[in-house]
Write a structure and sequence with these properties.
2 helices, mainly alpha
């Protein structure tokens, strides 16, 4: 597993601004939601088994979009 995925990101640093004191409860709630979201994402990444042969994306559409890009020369048949 990649080292940056082993722990949650460090908390954001806040500067104390007395004029913004009325926003602090809302900001704390948003920070809590953000932290909870990333903790759920980390849990899912670390604990949900991944089968990389099963695609949840519309590969035909992806290939069609790739073919419109001049930098993409060949769309491999191995994507099937």
């Amino acid at each position: 597993m990649l080292s940056f995925m082993t722990h949650a990101p460090p908390p954001l640093q806040h500067h104390h601004d007395p004029s913004m004191a009325h926003h602090q409860p809302m900001q704390q709630a948003h920070m809590h939601l953000l932290h909870s979201f990333w903790m759920r994402q980390m849990h899912e990444i670390q604990n949900v088994p991944q089968d990389f042969k099963v695609h949840h994306l519309p590969l035909a559409r992806i290939k069609k979009v790739m073919k419109t890009d001049d930098d993409v020369k060949v769309c491999s048949r191995s994507m099937h």
